[in-house]
Amino acid sequence: MKKRVLGFVLAGIMAASLSGCSSANVKSGEWAKNVEIQVPAKAGGGTDVMARTLANQVAKDSGSTITIVNNTDGGGVVACEKTAAGKKDGSTLTQWHITMLIKTAAGIYNKSAASDFTVVGVAVPKDKANNVLVVSADSPYQKLDDLLAAAKEKPGEIMFGVETGGTTHVQTGLFAKAAGVEVKYVEAGSDTEKLTALVGKSIDACFVNANQAKQYLESGKARALAVVSNTKEGGRSSVLPDVPSFIEQGVDFYFQMFNALIVGPKDMDPALAEKIHDYYAAAAKNEEVNKTLVPAGFEMEFLSFDEGRKTIEDSQVQINDVVKQLGLHK
């Protein structure tokens, strides 16, 4: 019987930090009027698009002025530190994704979202699968079974492109464990960089977001072997509906995605934190917001305030174990 492996990811994954000037004596449940969101991602990418789209609607609904700042300093740690040291009026928040949990687990960041911040909101994708395993179009691996057979015949030789210490590194490790194979991890950068490396034959396979893989698949430059379902129940991606999941193909591997993890300084007023959560949860359901998010494959829904906090607590424990198994802890 195959062992089921659970992973947690946050797809597109996104991050933000809200900071700005406001009165030091804020009434209970009153949000700051000037908010700065620090996004540990480059402008124009999926994380940035989600942050800006949600923030625009939240600003309209709340009356707060929200400014997005793309801050990748320290791999996102600087954005988190701004929140950790910020006021508790909601003027400083960080919205990221699973990378925050991975950096904590790997010992890169010495603070934990669950213990050192207030978890304001956690959003999960509405799509049933978001990432896909791809190989180049002229790869000898026509199907998933071909790749698995080769990996078992040549342990540690098939090169998987990953962003070292990032989501795809953890995801690849979980896949290998679930499939009972050994693969070679090769630093290949972002999804765009991984796809370029794949076509250039610098790597044999990689996990990337289905939206970014689609153009390579449609142009005949790459081939999809399996999509990664977000839950143990399985399911396919709406972006790539013809690609079967790992679970359908007999590999009990899935990876729970998070679209957003929003945190504030530790010990925020619970009433305020929940109010901000509600603004974001409402924005994720807004029709105008989804005119941007849905075509990009970023449609999401927020877990309840209490469920979000508990989910991050549980996820950090599980990710700590996975990162340790992969030898990523510094």
Give structural notes.
The chain has a six-stranded mixed sheet, with helices on both faces. Strands 8-7-9-6-10 form a five-stranded mixed sheet, sandwiched between helices. The chain has 330 residues and is an alpha/beta fold. It is globular and about 60 Å long. The N terminus is likely disordered. It contains eleven helices and 13 strands.
- Total strands: the figure is 13
The biggest sheet, with number of strands, parallel, antiparallel or mixed sense and barrel status, is: 6 strands, mixed
Q: Separation of termini?
A: 33 Å
In terms of structural class, how would the helical and strand content be classed?
alpha/beta
% residues in beta strands: 15-25%
What's the mean pLDDT score? 89
Shape: globular
List the helices and strands and how they pair.
Blueprint: E1 5-9, E2 34-39, H1 46-62, E3 65-70, H2 77-84, E4 92-96, H3 98-105, H4 113-116, E5 117-125, E6 129-136, H5 144-153, E7 159-162, H6 167-179, E8 184-187, H7 191-199, E9 205-209, H8 210-218, E10 222-229, E11 253-257, E12 260-265, H9 270-285, H10 287-293, E13 300-302, H11 305-325
Parallel strand pairs: 1-11, 2-3, 2-4, 7-8, 7-9
Antiparallel strand pairs: 4-12, 5-12, 5-13, 6-9, 6-10
Keywords:
330 residues; 11 helices; disordered N terminus; alpha/beta; globular; 6-stranded mixed beta sheet; 13 strands; 5-stranded mixed beta sheet
Quick structural summary:
With 330 residues, the chain is an alpha/beta fold.
